[in-house]
Structures are given as C-alpha cells and as structure tokens.
Amino acid sequence: MTRDLTGRRVLVTRPAGQGEGLAQQLEALGAEVLQRPALAIEPRTPADWPPVEPVDWLVFTSPNAVQWALPWLDSIDHSRAQIAAVGPGTAARAQADGLPVAVAPRAGGGVDELLAEPDFAPAVGERVLIFRGEGGRERLQQVLREGQVIVVEVDVYRRVPAAAALDVPPAWRSAPLDATVVTSRAGLDALLGMTGQPALQWLQASRLITVSDRVAAYARAMGFVDPVVAAGAADADLSAAVVQALQREGND
Fold first, then answer.
1. What is the CA 28 to chain-centroid distance, rounded?
2. pLDDT in tens, 83-101
3. I want to staple 235 with a disulfide (CB 3.0 to 4.6 A). Which of 21, 41, 65, 135 is the partner?
C-alpha cells in the first residue's frame, strides 16, 4: 500500500502542543495540514487533596492526566502503589516522567482495554486513585466499585473550547477537506460548537478519523459519514488511519 498523501488536505484538532508530531508525519507523506485545536487543557486543583488513606493503585486516564497529576504526587505516599495507564501513549508519558507503569494495554487504548488486562486486578477493599480530566467517563469507576474496590477520583485538568469560532483560511474553505482528526467526544463537541454554516457542511464532508468506536458512533450521529477508527491514539496510528481512509476512498 502506497502512503502518498500528496494533494490531500487534513484538519488536525488536537490541543495546542499535542498535534505537531502528527502534523509532521502527515506533511512528510505529502499532505497539507491545518492545525486548529478544538480544546485547550487547563490545570485544575484537586478537591479533598491529599487523600488520607494509603493508596494501592494509581491509574492515569491520559497523557494530560499524567502531566497535571505530577505536581500533586509528592504530597502523598504512593511508594507501594502499582501504576496503571489506559493506553501505551499514557504509559510512555508516565514512564518518561519517572513513574514505573506496571499495567497498560500494549496497543489501542481505553478503559475497556485496561479492564481486559489480566494484571489489572485491584482486590476487594483496595484503594484506587484515578487521575483524570473533569467530566471524563465513569465506566472504570463503575466497574471497580461493582468489584468492591474503593475508588477516589482526582480531577487534575479540564478541557475547554480553544476558540469561539473555527478559523479556516479562504484558500482552505474554497476546496474540499479530505480528512479531520478528532480524538475525543469532547473535542468533537467543541469543534462543532466552533463551526457555523457553511463551514459545517465543509467539515462533515470530510472523512473523520478518531480513536474509538464510541466517538465514531457519536460522529455518525453528528452527520459524519463512515468515520474511521485508528488502531490507537499515537501519531503513527492516526497517520496510518488517514492513509487507509483516503486510499480506500480513492479506490471506491
């Protein structure tokens, strides 16, 4: 399969500072890339911090959770805690910051993938601290509590819309957009909230690339046709998904 994206136009919506690697990979394949972050990441002071009881597990739900949890970790004793991450990208960020990750999915990523890992097995009565973004999914907490695990949720960042309106250069809007990369439902909501007519039709006509079936299903409900789910959230996974989607479209 050729990986040539010459002449293709791709919108990358990852937060500022988190989309450059993907943009560079796509540009190296010949694509024209427009970076327009849909979300901005803001640190948040955790409520009821620090926890009083000893901690058995630390769970990080994203690379952002690792970044914004670090300033708070020194105030608790987590020396005996095992560390889990929801995906390889989150695990890599934790390990780069000196946190020894015991359990993480090797590919893909997400709560369900972590729950499927046999080594992620908090025992009844153990205490799990989940570092996450404000308003994140509740599935992990629900499953652990059903197993009589003590769960402490720690919101260390929040996601807010990055702009009031989507700024698209006239030269871009005058030609079809081939692909749009959105990696979360919150990001898609923010992107749609920034987009008015006729830019919305321009956006919806592109192939949407995302990282989970859940976000893809939501994108379909929002008017996107046949979203593509990448193998994971890493830059290489997303660029491969863009190539696959656009080449499949060219062969249809």
1. 23
2. 999 999 999 999 999 999 9
3. 21
